[in-house]
Write a structure and sequence with these properties.
The structure holds 2 protein chains of 2 kinds. Chain A is an alpha+beta fold. Chain A contains 8 helices and 19 strands. Chain A starts with 17 loop residues before the first helix and ends in a 22-residue tail after the last helix. Helix content of chain B is 56%, strand content 8%. Chain B has a 3-stranded mixed beta sheet. The chains are: A alpha+beta, B mainly alpha.
């Protein structure tokens, strides 16, 4: 008599498909705990029924969603790779549904691959705008892309405008080199005014990061005269915790607790709280010498289309080849650095001597009487 | 021996190969199927419970597991207790060959022992990570029902996934 209602079942023979004897959700659990997309793809090569199982249950998609919850905003995927061109279409037939699932399987598998193994590089392509700038263009946000504190004897940093209230924050907004990037960490070096008495360091009290995209597509990005940092121009899909910042002019590392998928290629650094008053005018400033954003670029393999009416986007697979990028160890190629050197020198030679001197720039960097503004210092 | 019904703290389990195991009720209640049965039939007589799908070899492992984990749980939760439980699990998994691992999963699934099942599933996942397609087929005993052309097409679609695989060691 079978007390527990447990029927006598066939003893499993060698070679009989494990899948048949296993509960569906048992195999699902095993497969779902695999976190390498290569394993999932190999699984689908084991047999037809296994491939069917992996695709039907969206295993690759779930892996990506687990790694990057930001992907919940994906409306659908498009595949624009070589001969396989498939756009998602609205259709109610089973065949369409299966095609869509197969497409998702391929796209998400390669996306997971990219997120885990494309090269880690510097990801900023250009500076967009700062919330305020004290002396434009000498102290513009562009200087933060330059790793050196000094270029051809001229200081290179961004400075905010002065505020009497130290709680007033600032933002620095950048465009990344790809619409889809997996960001792991951000490095920031606050600026130390070596030409001021006491060499004060104009760091912020803490920092926070936002990632997202432009509200409307593509245009009006390079509007430099726009004084408004235009927070209404961006939609943030990720906001980090606050990280305390040290008052040290070293490249400080802010590692995100988990890698984050930046969708839309816009990253903003929010600088919260000012700590350094400028002696000369008694106002609080924030100055940043260098910014680096480190991560993996998923373009050109992947692209996105933002759906403007909703907050969703379309994920596009454009290639299934791993992109190769030139080795970039610093944030600017040497060509760009030389260009900056040239710009600074030309500025100087063009007779902006007055301006340069006003800001305490000058050949005698040890000159302790240099002040930020107003007084013209007589060079020897 | 008295024939009066005494509140017994022991339950007897009979395996497929006719071995009987007497275990504390607390241990038997770790088996979801047993617990459900007695919850629904509180007055059921405590006759030996037949487990026609489980051999003594595996039931003894399961009983040891439940005993140990019950003991861990009874102790105050601390990181050393957690480490102890983890170490036990790791040792257990290491000691099992692929065949035993699979049989235990079936048994734990049959008896509905959630924690053990989760641990065993993870053990299987760890064993098939970064293994070749042929290894996975052998591990689970799967027939390859692809035609050579179909299989080549599947591999071609995701070439990147088939590189850098561990050499088969079975």
């Amino acid at each position: 008599m079978s007390i527990l209602g447990l029927k006598r079942t066939k003893k499993m023979k060698n070679g009989v498909d494990f899948l048949n004897f296993l509960h569906h959700d048992l195999l699902l659990k095993i497969v779902s705990s695999l976190d390498d997309p290569s394993d999932l793809v190999r699984f689908s090569a084991v047999s037809r029924s296994w491939r069917h199982f992996v695709i039907k249950n969206g295993i690759c998609k779930h892996l990506c969603l687990r790694m990057f919850p930001q992907l919940s905003r994906v409306d659908h995927v498009n595949e624009l790779v070589g001969r396989v061109k498939g756009h998602a279409e609205v259709g109610s037939s089973n065949f369409m549904e299966w095609e869509a699932l197969e497409r998702e399987h391929r796209v998400y598998a390669f996306l997971a691959r990219g997120c885990l193994s494309f090269s880690v590089t510097e990801c900023i392509s250009e500076a967009i705008i700062a919330s305020s700038t004290d002396n434009y263009p000498e102290e513009s946000i562009d200087n933060t892309l330059e790793p050196r504190d000094r270029v051809a004897q001229i200081a290179s940093y961004w400075s905010s405008k002065g505020q009497s209230d130290p709680a007033v924050p600032e933002t620095l907004t950048y465009k990344l080199a790809a619409d889809l990037c997996v960001i792991t960490e951000i490095n920031i070096r606050p600026f130390r005014a070596y030409f001021q008495i006491g060499c004060p360091i104009y760091s912020a009290r803490s920092v926070r990061f936002h990632m997202g995209h432009l509200k409307t597509s593509r245009d009006n990005l390079g509007d430099e005269s726009c004084k408004d940092s235009g927070n209404d121009k961006f939609v943030w899909t990720y906001t980090s915790q606050e990280f305390p910042m040290a008052q040290e002019n070293v490249l400080q590392n802010f590692k995100l607790p988990e890698p984050v998928l930046c969708i839309g290629g816009i990253l903003q650094i929010e600088l919260l709280g000012r700590v350094q008053r400028q002696e000369m005018d008694g106002l609080f400033y924030i100055c940043v010498s260098h910014v680096q954003v480190v991560g993996r670029r998923l373009s050109p393999a992947f692209g996105i289309q933002i759906l403007e009416s909703s907050d969703k986007f379309v994920l596009e697979a454009l290639s299934y080849k791993q992109p190769t990028f030139p080795e970039v160890t610093s944030s600017v190629s040497s060509l760009q650095m030389r260009l900056r050197d040239l710009e600074q020198i030309v500025n100087f030679l063009r007779g902006n001597v007055v301006d340069v001197v006003e800001h305490g720039y000058g050949w005698n960097v040890d000159d302790e009487e240099s002040d930020e503004e107003e007084e013209v210092i007589h060079e020897e | 021996m008295s024939t009066a019904t005494v509140e017994s703290k022991k339950i007897t389990l009979r395996t497929a190969d006719n071995h009987e195991f007497e275990v504390d009720e607390a241990i038997a209640m770790e088996f979801g199927t047993v617990k459900t049965f007695f919850d629904e039939n509180p007055d059921a007589s405590r006759e030996p419970i037949p487990l026609p799908n489980i051999s003594s070899q595996y039931l003894s492992i399961i009983i040891e597991y439940c005993k140990s984990h019950l003991a861990f749980r009874v102790r105050e939760s601390s990181s050393s207790v957690e480490d102890g439980a983890k170490a036990y699990d790791e040792e257990l998994i290491k000691s099992l060959d692929n065949e035993s691992l699979k049989e235990l999963i079936l048994a734990a699934n049959y008896l509905n022992i959630k924690d053990m099942l989760d641990m065993l599933n993870q053990g299987v996942a760890d064993r098939i990570k970064n293994k070749s397609v042929e290894y996975v087929r052998r591990f689970f005993g799967i027939e390859n029902d692809y035609t050579p052309e179909e299989e080549a097409a599947v591999r071609a679609q995701n070439e990147w996934a088939f590189e850098g695989v561990d050499p088969d060691d079975d």
